[in-house]
Amino acid sequence: MRRSRGTPEKGLALRAPRAARWAQRENDATPGSVAPGPVGEHGTSDTAMFAHPSPDVNGGTTQVAQSLLTVEILSDIIEAATAKAAALVMSQGQGGPVMRKAWVYTRGDAYYVGFRDPDGRRHGKSCGTGPKGKRLAEREADRLHAELVTGTYQSNAKKTWCEFRAEYEAKILPAKAPATQQLTRRSLNNFERLAKPGRVSGITTKTIDTFIAARRVEVQAFRPRTTGKRKSPKPYAERKQVKPRTVNADLRSIQTALNVAAEWGYLKELPKFRFLPQPEALPKYITPEDFDRLYEACAVAVRPVVQGIDPAEWWRALLTVGYMTGLRIGELLSLARDKVALPIGVAQLWNQKASREEAVPLHPVAVAALERMRGFSPVFFPWPHHRNLIWKTFHRIQAAAGIPGKYTPHALRRAFGTLNANRVGGPKALQFLMRHKDGRTTQQFYVNPMEGLTEAVDRLFVPPKLRTGTG
Predict the structure, then answer these.
(1) Element (H, E) at 107
(2) Which of 119, 133, 322, 464 would bridge 128 by S-S if both were Cys, CB 3.0 to 4.6 A apart?
(3) What is the C-alpha separation between 243 and 255, in angstroms, rounded?
(4) Together in a domain, 169 and 314
(5) Phi, psi (degrees; rounded to nearest 5) at 3
């Protein structure tokens, strides 16, 4: 017979009559046994419990039965007392009894569980009608009370992806750079289009793998040009397949967003991301020979159109400062005059990636180039045109210099890292000058190992026999 889920006293009341009947059968079956007396408060005969047993020809069977009965009743009493003590300990806090965090109430014939989440919002949950609904409501109330007391309650299991994204774009994205915001929105759009997430709590490793499998076989989308002569879109069959680098960029943006979801409690466990292997090309940097040719070809530049500034001098100063400091193109364009101390050669820059202000020492050649950029603008390199025209003008200068291929302004920064890797006193000093948080970023993306290998090969050991040129 299953014990009732009521109070411990009810459990004792159900078990005691069975024990009394068992003792009665033992007394009836044993010659010379004592007749049972009045039933005591524990459901058995006081005579059977405390009277001395009569001599027994079968070796004291009655005494053994009565002893077992007494042990069983005492164990029930101890169990009930232990349960009450445990409940009392769990219900007490530092300042006295703790108010019940979840409760059961009725609405018509249905039983409900009411509780307040850690944010103070009240919730109600229906558990059904009848004895079964009451039993389920009591169990659910106990579970919710335990989770709320121990701090393991998860209140955001029903948060949808659309709700989370709106909250993420309102609270997190505005603190990032505009280019990062655009890339993040594009990656999240691709994730919604291919993975079709519902609730945030339902995003698993399988969801990420589904997105990767669908994204890697897509072709590149056609994006019409916003400046210059518009080109007609290529036929779908002639477009190239999405590169692994593009897929990995999407995965990094999605991983960053899901990290925030896990911190906010919307996601119980962060899924695993399987990044695609991609060929690691050597960093492309502007060689000293190409820099000289670009410097001379700046005469073909027609932008920027700023009063008192010659476009050719503007580009020569930009190339010089970028080549001698390794600043990013965004940092060059926002280099404010009040943040640069030209007499001592120090510039105060805001690092958007690290969200901190940093002091950058300037080489005398860079200081001389900045001193030539005089004007009324609050920045040294004003650009009153669309940002994309910088690349177009830079490509025009390269074409005039006869340089095959196309450099980007970021190649100036890679040239600073590659050409100074063995000149500044070690990788740590180069990392500091380039303002990277991790030195591996400097060595992997900004130092071309082919630079200087020709001199290293010339210094290789040659056996004496081979030096004479004879076999």
Answers:
(1) strand 102-107
(2) 133
(3) 19
(4) no
(5) -70, 145
436 and 292 within one domain: yes
Tell me the whole-structure pTM to 2 decimals: 0.57
Q: Cβ distance 123 to 116 under 8 Å?
A: yes
Tell me the CATH number at 318: 1.10.443.10
185: Cβ contacts below 8 Å, ≥ 6 apart: 169, 173
The answer as to whether 141 is a domain residue is: no
pLDDT digits (tens, 9 = 90+) for 10-53: 444 444 555 555 555 555 544 444 444 444 444 444 444 444 44
Beta partners for residue 359, in sequence order: 348
Q: Choose the most confident range, by mean pLDDT, from 24-28, 254-258, 448-452.
A: 254-258
Is 413 in contact with 326 (CB distance < 8 Å)? yes
Relative to beta strand 110-116, strand 92-93 is: unpaired
Overall number of domains in the chain: 3
Domain boundary pick from 90, 122, 146 = 90
* Domain of residue 86, residue span: 8-90
Whether 168 and 27 map to the same domain: the answer is no
User: Is the C-alpha dihedral spanning 390, 396, 399, 404 positive or negative?
Assistant: positive
Residue 122 lies in a domain: no
59 φ/ψ sector (left φ>0, alpha ψ -120 to 50, else beta) = left
The single-letter code of the amino acid at 330 is: G
pLDDT by residue (tens digit) across 110-129? Answer: 999 998 877 777 888 899 99
Task: Point out which residues pair with 92 in neighbouring strands.
Answer: 97
Q: Does 138 reside within a domain? A: no
Say whether both 255 and 298 belong to one domain. no
Residue 77 in any domain: the answer is: yes
Same structural domain for residues 171 and 52? Answer: no
**What DSSP designation does 298 have?**
G
Query: What are the backbone dihedrals phi and psi of residue 253, each rounded to the nearest 5 degrees, phi first?
Result: -65, -40
Sign of the torsion angle spanned by Cα atoms 186, 192, 198, 202: negative
